[in-house]
């Protein structure tokens, strides 16, 4: 009887208490890592985007401002084919 009581208590703990504890621990760990990321790279992914604008936008409504245009890569030039040696194929039986 004592064995079944312990088994039920363990099952209830694993079923109801452990998920709450794990959820809290993971949430705390993620916030801590996000703060480290923010200190290192200067951004906080959990911050409200309206509060973290780096600079005010000076573009009128409806216009797009592009700050960086990557350089265009030149398409690779195909190599000139100087021809090759023709080999006559004969089927050997």
Descriptive account of the structure:
This protein is mainly alpha-helical and 93 residues long. It is built from one helix and no strands. The protein has one helix spanning 2-41. The protein starts with a helix and ends in a 52-residue tail after the last helix. The model has no long low-confidence stretch (mean pLDDT 81). InterPro entries: DUF4834 (IPR032272).
In short:
The chain is mainly α and 93 residues long. Helices cover 43% and strands 0% of the residues.
Counted by DSSP, the helix tally is: 1
Tell me, briefly, the overall form.
Answer: flat
Distance between the termini: 85 Å
What percent of residues are in strands?
A: under 5%
Unreliable stretches (pLDDT < 50, length at least 5) are none
- Mean of residue pLDDT? 81
- Which structural category do the helix and sheet elements fall into? mainly alpha
Q: Tell me the radius of gyration.
A: 33 Å
Helix fraction bin: 40-55%
The description of the largest β-sheet is: none
Order of helices and strands: H
Number of strands: 0
Biased composition (Polar residues): 47-62
Protein name: DUF4834 family protein
Region (Disordered): 44-84
Organism: Hymenobacter endophyticus
């Amino acid at each position: 009887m004592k064995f079944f009581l312990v088994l039920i208590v363990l099952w209830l703990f694993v079923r109801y208490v452990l998920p709450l504890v794990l959820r809290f621990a993971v949430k705390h760990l993620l916030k801590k890592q996000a703060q480290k990321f923010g200190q290192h790279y200067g951004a906080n992914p959990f911050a409200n985007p309206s509060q973290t604008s780096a600079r005010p936008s000076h573009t009128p409504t409806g216009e797009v401002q592009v700050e960086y245009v990557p350089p265009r890569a030149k398409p690779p030039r195909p190599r000139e084919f100087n021809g090759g040696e023709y080999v006559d194929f004969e089927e050997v039986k």
